[in-house]
């Protein structure tokens, strides 16, 4: 079965993926931070068992303590779990669909964190899928819900809908022009946030930013989603306009051509350099001045990161072998060479 | 007429060019440093006039003060004159053959500095050509010569034969392994010196080093030349052996492939980067793992430098235009693309 990021139909160069995350808690247990190990294990098993007999729903149950640190980091690299969740600790578990588009973290900050990722600009699809799963869990478990406040969550910022919806956007033109900070200030006034690829406090690897809703209280899911979609489209329009200007600059053309040249030629490639070069190349492909099979970007971005790549290679790849394999896979996937 | 560096037959990847320089002075004048402007101008005219009626010898006479600073720097870039000679000052002149292989600096450190450059490993050819010119001048002028000391020169280090013979060697393998310093120490014990491309105190651009004889007193020209040739061949053998080892290293292969990729792709290219990339590519071509028309290296190395390129473009090229033209010429010349 294909992973979500192997969908080759996704050709939008700006919105790379869409994500909806719902925070839910069980009424009969304290929040995970206040639960001891036995309590957390009980919550994990409870959710697992409740879904065990649902027909048509195939989720793999993974106790986090069973994973090697590398396996856990590989999951975080692919945005299946949060980086914090990857830290080895007992009493945490993950439910994961085979295509990796649906994941449920158990006993992260909240008892239940449902996440659905879709390739491209498909917030509605992600939302509907998350909602179906939420309705199912709601019918099987006893959610902590308050008529006035909505879903109760450990962190106040999630109170209400418990929903964070977000899109990963590739914004090379705005980033190279130093306009992301201004954008960030503007959208924050609209109840949204622009952050680096891996959430708060992380840099934007390869000019990929996460635009997500910030407000979950006093606003319906649908309204939050519509706001997000409208603003994402506005940002994409800006990005395209700035990109059209940018490629008139010789140094930008030079960067794009070199990125293609290096990706075609390199025998060793680090994740950081790969993401940086992808950014220029993707800009070039979007603007019609570089050639590459861009349907491979999502997959390569996901699978060519250090820990994921090492896992795929049986877990025993050292840095040099990883860099060599990464360079080779990139050549094959983007240029068929 | 072709310039010497446009000779496409030169395919030795290690010895790029051979050079013989003779320092001569006139017995009837003090050394240039002790001459006033009128005296220096007299010397320049005297040499010019003595050669004016020699049939078959076509040398252009250039008074240095007539050149723009850029034109003078361009001559130094191509090793036709010394960097010091390029500094604008009256009472200095240059005699230059059309193919730029023969040049005579007048009133540099000595009254007369004859230089002959040949592409590839051709010290004998350069020496014979320099000697013919020297015999001619000797028959027309009154050289300062002492039976016991030989040719008298301003600097004691040139006393005797007044000859410096040298080869430009491309030593990427030895350089990348940090073995040039040791080599330099070894050859200095044999009366030779290894220096950066532009003589004393300059770095080695693109891993090109100048190996030349240091001793001119108490040794015949022929012996000095034979020593130099033997040691150059030894160094070339070492360079090849180290190169064979080096290319077993993934990071070296990566550097070579990238150099080719970038040179093929870049839209802007500085002189420094070009020389650095040339070094890797030349190593790759020599070792049979990269493809480029290497007969173009000498010419590109000579003509793609900042001042020379700007002069060729009519003198008015700014940095960006030079970098763009350099990238284009490199693509066309090395890869025919």
**Major sheet summary line of chain A:** 8 strands, antiparallel
The helix tally of chain A amounts to 12
- Give the quaternary arrangement of the chains: homodimer
Rg of chain A to the nearest angstrom? 20 Å
Helix proportion of residues of chain A, in percent? 40-55%
Strand numbers in spatial order across the main sheet of chain A:
2-3-4-5-1-8-10-9
Averaged pLDDT of chain A, please? 90
| Total count of strands of chain A | 10
Order of helices and strands of chain A: EHEHHEEEHEEEHHEEHHHHHH
Indicate the structural class of chain A.
Answer: alpha+beta
What's the N-to-C terminus distance of chain A?
25 Å
Principal-axis shape of chain A equals: globular
Give the topology.
2 copies of one chain form a homodimer.
Chain A: E1 15-24, H1 37-52, E2 59-63, H2 69-77, H3 83-86, E3 93-97, E4 102-106, E5 112-119, H4 123-140, E6 145-146, E7 150-151, E8 163-170, H5 172-176, H6 180-188, E9 192-195, E10 208-213, H7 221-246, H8 250-265, H9 271-286, H10 297-303, H11 306-312, H12 319-335
Helix pairs in contact in A: 2-11, 8-9
Quick overview:
The first copy, chain A, is α+β, with helices and mostly antiparallel strands and 337 residues long. Chain A has helices at 37-52, 69-77, 83-86, 123-140, 172-176, 180-188, 221-246, 250-265, 271-286, 297-303, 306-312, 319-335, and strands spanning 15-24, 59-63, 93-97, 102-106, 112-119, 145-146, 150-151, 163-170, 192-195, 208-213.
